[in-house]
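COMPLEX REQUEST
Ligand: RUQ
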Amino acid sequence: MSKPVFLGLIAAMLGLGLLAVACGGDGNGGNGGGDGVLNDIAAQRGLTPEDMKHALQQFVPPGKYDDYVMFSSGGHSGQLLVVGMPSMRILKQIAVFTPEPWQGYGYGADWGDKVLKEGNREGTDLTWGDTHHPAISETAGEYDGRWIYIQDRANGRMAMIDLADLRVKQIVAVPNIQTSHGGMFVTPNSEYVHVSSKFPMPWPPGTYADVSEYKEKFRGASTWLKIDQATGRINLKESFQVEIPPYTQDLADAGKKVSEGFGFIGSFNTEMATGGVDAEGKPEPLEAGASKNNFDFLHVVNWKKGEEVVKAGKAEEMNGIKVIRLDTAIKEGVLHLIPEPKSPHGADVDPSGRYIVVGGKLDPNVTIFDFNKVKQAIDSKDYEGKDVFGVPILKFDSVVAAQVEVGAGPLHTQFDSQGHGYTSMFLASAIAKFTLGEDVVKTGEEPFKRIETIPVHYNIGHLATAEGDTVSPDDNYMVALNKWSIDRFAPLGPLHPQNFQLIDLKGGNGPMELLADMPIGMGEPHYTQIMKADKLKALEVYLPGTDALTMERSEFAIEAGQEKVERDGNHVEAWMTAQRSHFTPDILRVKQGEHVMLHITNIEQTRDATHGFAIADYNIQASLEPGETATFEFTADKPGAYNFYCTEFCSALHLEMAGWLLVEPSAAAAANP
Ligand code: RUQ
Ligand code: CUA
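STATUS: Structure written out below.
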């Protein structure tokens, strides 16, 4: 909603008698006019004028679109959520790592089966993921609405979703890592999407080591996955990794503008604790061992230099990806460390690219590093020493810009375009707003100062401003992603939903104001990116005969009238069409044990004319979007007369859109029923 319209609405609302409510009058003086109606509703529902104002700020009338789309991770659901903002309505769940029946993902159609299968590391059979940090592709540091990437925190994988049709096209098991955390982020022109390991694993990968040899044998990796500019897919051959020490690598962000070409990865557990017992044999819980040091390390990775090192042939191929080994990374100046206090978590780069804000979970300050100083220190080799692996450490005092006391448990920081940072505080259940350096503060406020704090409900993890990870954030909305909801919703059993809260930023001029709660009852919606809705330019229908995986015409696509069934020995292959309200052919006769391939083209070109395809007892269910061709392949091992039907309510005769798969029992089965 544009500002003048919004202000007009508020003025109209106030004119309609809400001021009278605020003043204790009844506002019902009219003779049945609109003023009385609004006041009656407010009185009946126990709403304050503030509630009414917030409702108007968030309201999107029926049939109107939201200003923004939020792409939110679906946490343990393994999926990606699309939420409209400011209405905070879930618009869609996109299947990513977990089979999803509505979209027919992982239930027999070739698109999903191929993506899920190819995304499995050798020897694994995963059917879920923990979606964590989504990253929209960027051009010149702005979200460009082409693709979105998201990682599987649990299994060290990542997925690419094409925003042309909002379907996942590729899952990559990232080599040489087991769990993932830092990133995903894309570089400002989508050259790479980055993901790093969370917990280190024995290296070289494929070997076994006990955690008693943690320091010597375990390693992490910072992974730079090359994005194919035509398709958005990852090209592993042109990707590379940087081997990093066995600290627990944490949040990461891409340099931009002045810091373009660099990536920043926080870490904790530089103590390299593993749980179990300490050096003297006394029990030492992992979290205690990992929180002893006053400083951990922010990793500074020069990815442009990394590219050169790979080009110069100084990287080793390991499991299908080029790896810059740790000693090479040190020698070539690809990796530097900066001390960061105390059990740090978020590492976020501001829109100017100059400031890197780090939140230390056990420190009430955010620490703000100045990239200009970092660059200078690297160039002049102004080191305080090296870590135990020989990685040079920059001097904290020569690269820090400021520390700002924000409150208890600072985690993540987002930004507006006015030179403010907003930091989530898990322990304080609040967001603090502060100023960055005077070169970016546009409001005349004193630099590096806390301005205000707003409580959230409760225990916030990430937060996101509109267009928040770009070089030009919008200053209107922020969403708090709260881990706990406690008493905010009806009692739903011991497992509570999590809570998104919509906050009004008022153009960066504050005070911040809480507008709405939104329960999320599926997994932990971990992080979100919020993009202007008009950047989403999705297809309305596919071109006739499109294979949703390749986005090209399927070799199995047919037009109406070309339907056929062919047999070759034990193999039955059918080319079918789906159109309101009929499958052609609608009777398929096969013999028990035969290998069956069905190619079904939805020959519709009408918006929203989706058909489903399900066969009883065969665990087959697909969604065939207008124009799509999909293939199903199975062995007709269960004899019987099976009904197949369209699972999408597509037409008045949708219930009649059905047919038969007749599986004639084999002689042996018939003789021995
Ligand atoms: S980070 S727990 Cu996004 Cu706060 Cu992973
Ligand atoms: Cu096609 Cu229902």
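REMARKS: The first strand starts at residue 68 and ends at 73. The mean pLDDT is 94.
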